[in-house]
Request: fold
Amino acid sequence: MEALRQLPAVDRVLAEPALAGLVAELGHAGAAALARDALAARRAALLDGAAPAADRDAEAALVAAAVLALDAPGPVRVVNATGVVVHTNLGRAPLAPEAVRAVAATAGGYADLELDLATGQRGSRQARLGPRIARLVGAEAGLAVNNCAGALVLVLAALARGREVVVSRGQLIEIGDGFRLPEIMEQAGARLVEVGATNRTRLEDYAAAIGPDTALLLRAHPSNFRIVGFTEEVGVADLAALGGERGVPVVDDVGSGLLHPDPDLPGEPDAAGSIAAGAGLVLFSGDKLLGGPQAGLIAGRADLVEAVGCHPLARALRIDRLGVAALAATLRLHADPARARAAVPVRRTIARPEADVRARAERLAALTGGEAMACAARIGGGALPAVDLASWACALPDPTGALHAALRTGAPAVLGRLEDGMLLLDCRTLLDDAEVDVVAERVAACR
Ligand SMILES: *Cc1c(COP(=O)(O)O)cnc(C)c1O
Reply:
């Protein structure tokens, strides 16, 4: 095939001026390994019918660009103008500066992660986290693991292996990436007992399902969908009262990581409320509404937390050192709810007054020749699917999506959303006012 004969040799690719820096940094062997992968991919693309470059030199330049892409260390910083606050594909929660500093302060050296410096004795990485988590939600004890999905698996394995767990049919959720509650249950070795109907489950349904083999009553917050209309679910307090009578603890997976009720987030379940209502354990994410690093937080009765923490899977799911630093610093900000709303980026974004968002959109529109328009932003990340946040965007005509593609592939990448031939750059999710200028510059460069 003619196109293949034009493919350059590895050394011809490495001689491209664009790769001089990369070859100097990685060495010939490291750069050649990347070039071989890039050439293999290019060969496959040509065999697949991709258009060949104009000549041998152009083909070498193309492969060199692919080598640079293969080498790019990531993830790279992007500008979130999508209007989705907790965007899973964009890394969920941006950390507060306090959390970033905490990570930076320990990342490059050794740390007293599992050593009590006062006594010289071995300590626990949970020592900085457990009591803080417990205090924040009014529980006896707390624990943090790698993420909330892991927390759920761990709790089921530790407390319900070989036994039954009662769940409402309306709460058999898939959280994302094929993570489905019935399958998790199976992996953890627990037997799922479904009760009620998709839209209605009553306390009697739970009561009838409890038997000698029942280990837990599980509630899972249907965080990424809503069943509307003729619906009924049993609240934590009623479930906990029933569980109390029958000696079966309630585990409440609230998912989104709201610690206390928040006026900005009406109807969103909160961890403290769940504990106060009698849940034996409450589980939530570190990087959704808590606005910290990826983590799964567990709080509740001391005996249950202890049993969970001692399970062998707890070691496999343990939170890493950088996560401990970021989470401890983030939890510290939550000690005062008003401070959390000001200092935790996710919460500040949600709390930002509409007038401020509008002012940003109007400034961006003036800078780019676009038009400021009212729109709706979303919390995302599995929280409040039905709640819109009043927002403002700068709208730019983009009938083919070419402008959005250029913004997405530039540096820094700017992500918006396309609606009816218009590119909307939602100004609620810009981290600060300076990002308005960054976006304006990128738009100017892309047109
Ligand atoms: C998001 C979510 C999870 C998973 O949390 P991760 O921290 O992403 O693992 C589990 N349960 C519920 C209800 C959720 O909303």
